[in-house]
Specification:
This protein is of the alpha/beta class. The protein is built from twelve helices and seven strands.
Amino acid sequence: MGCTRVYPIFKNMKKLIVGIDISKDVIDYCVLEKGSHQVIDRGVVQNERSFLNSWIKSFDLNNTCFSMEHTGHYGALLSWLLSERKAVYYMINALEIKRSLGIQRGKTDAVDAYRIASYSITNNFKLSPFILPCEELLKLKAMMTVRQQRVKMSVQLQNSIKANLILNRTVDISELIEDESRQLESIKKSISFIDRQMLEIIKSCEPLEQTYNKITKVIGVGPITAMKCIIETANFTKFDSARKFSCHSGLAPFPYQSGSSVKGRTRTHYLKNSSLKSILFKAAASAIQHDPQLKNYYNRKLKDGKHKLCALNAVANKVVLRIFAVQKREEPFVKLAA
C-alpha cells in the first residue's frame, strides 16, 4: 500500500452535518441542517463494522459530512470506513469543543452528539477534512505507543531492582530480585523486537524511508526520534511549519502579560505532547555533545542566565528547525563549523 492518501479539498461544508459521540460499544449521532441548526435525525448505532457500513450507506455522502472527537481506538473503525468511502469528516480535539461551549448544564451522549455537530457548523471556517494516515503510519503509531509503555515498565523495574538490592542486605529477597531481573530482560528483548519491526515498516515504504534517511542525518536525531517525528507529523503532511510542530511538542515559548499589572515570564504551554517533548529533549542533549555550534549556543544561553532546561529547550527548537529544513529540501544536512 502507498503511504499517501489524497482526497479532494472541500472548501465549503455540506448541507448536512452529522455529529458523532463515540463509545466502546455504540455511537450516538445527531444530524443537523447547516443553515438552521435544525435536528434532522438522531439515534444510536452499534460500533461494529456491519452496522456502521449500513448506517453510512443511508447517507448521501455528496451532501453530508461527519464530525467526531478524537477517541483513540474506539473511533478507528468508523474513521477507516468513512475514509474507504471517501466521505468528508472532521476529527476535533475534545478540549477544544468543551472550552468553546461556555457554561453547560448536564451531559449525555445524545447531547454531546448535538454539541459536536453544532460546533462544527459554527466553526466550519477553521476545520479541515481529516485524512487518515496510510496503513504503514498507523502500524508505526501503534508500535510506538507499545514501545513507550515497555520503556516505562523497564524504568520501573530497574528502579525496583535497585531498591530491592538495598533491602536484600537486611532481608533475603533474592528470589524476588531474580524474578524482576527476568521480567526486565524480557521487556528489553520486546523493545528491541519492536524497534526492528518499526525499521522494517519504514524500509517497506519508499516515502517514509526517504524522509527517515533525510532527518537521521541531522546531528542528534536517532532512529527513535526520526520515527516519532514521522508518526506525529504523518510524514510531514500534518504541520506546515516547524513553529506549529514546536507548539504541538510543547517547545514553543509564549509571553504571558496583560496591561501594565500582569507581566508573567515567557514560558511553554502546559498543553503538549509529553512523550514527543521528552524524545526531542534527548535529541537536543545528544546534539550538544556532538555539534560544536549547538554546544556553543547552549553555553551562551547558560551565560545569559537561562536555566539548563530552558537552554535545552532552545536547542530542541533548533533541532526541530533543522529537521523541517532538511525534510523540505533535497540537499542533505551539512554540519556547520562552530
